[in-house]
Amino acid sequence: MSAPVAAPVAAPVGRRRIQPCPAASARQLQLAEFAAVGVMAIWAGNFVVVKAAFSELPPVGYASIRFLIAGLLLLAFCRWREGSVGLPRRDLLPVAALGAVGFGIYQVLWTTALSHSTAGNSALIIAATPIFTMLVAVAIGSDTFSWAKAAGALVSFVGVGLVIGAGSGFSLADHLTGDLMTLVAALCWACYVSFGAPVLRRHSPLRTSAWTILSGTAVMAPLGLWQLAQADLSLVTPAGGLAIAYSAVLAGALGNVVVFEGIRLLGPTRITNLQFLPPALAVILAAIFLGETIRPEQVAGGLVIVLGILVARREGTHPRRPA
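-> C-alpha cells emitted (323 positions)
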C-alpha cells in the first residue's frame, strides 16, 4: 500500500501467526528480504515523488490516476497467478466499503495533507499508524487492553506532537492543517485493517488489495476528475508522467506483489520489522531532493514514535477468541 501504496504494510490485528515458507531455499529467502528492503526504499521515495508531482498535477487527481493503474495491474496479476479475480457476492459490499475507507478517503486526506505539509512530516506521522491500529482493535474487542499498549500509545503520540511542533510550532499554519489531516488518514487505515480483518482473511492479499484499491479509486474519482478538469494539463511534463509511473507501477503494483511474496516466504514479522525504514529514508530523501530541513525535534519525534511502537508491542498481540 503507500507505504501501503503510500501507507504502512500491516497485517490484520489478531491474525494467526504465519510461519516462513519451509520449502524456500536460503537463496530465495535472501532475495526475498533484499527485494523487500528495496520496496521500503521505493515507498520512502514515493513520499518525495508524490510531493514533487503536485507542482504539475492536483493531489486527488494524481492519486486517482495512479491507483487506477495500480489496481488494474494487480487485478491482471491476480488473474495470471490465481486463475480468477472474482469475489463471493457476500463480500462485494464489505470489500467495497473497506476500499472506500482504506484507499478512497485515506488517499483524499493523505494527498491533500501532503500538499500542505512536508514529505518528512507526512512519513513520520504515518509511521504511527500501528498505534492507531492497536487502539481501534482494542476498542472493537479484537485485541486485549494492556498497560504496555496504553504506555506505548502515549509515548508515540508525544512523538507525533514533536513532529507536528517541529513543522508548525502548533500555530494555525498550513503545516498544522496538513499534519492533522495526515493523522486522520492514519486513523482511516487503522480502521481498514482492524474492521476488515475478517473479510481480508477469506481471500488472498493480492485479490483483496486489487479490489479494495479499485473500490477506493471509484470513491476518489469524482473529486479527482473535477480537479483534473480544473488543472492546465498542458503544463504536465514527462517528469509528471514518470512520477505517476513510479507511484502506480513501482510503489503500487510491484511493491505490493513483492511484499506479498516476502510475507509468504519470510513470514509477516520479518516484513513488518522493515516498516521503520520508509519514514527515516523519506526524511533523508526529502532533504536531498526537495530541500526540506531536517529539524532536531523532527528526528526526536520520529525516534519517540518508534519507541512507543516497540513499547506497545512488548507483550505481543493477544487476540480474543470468538465465543
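The radius of gyration is 19 Å.
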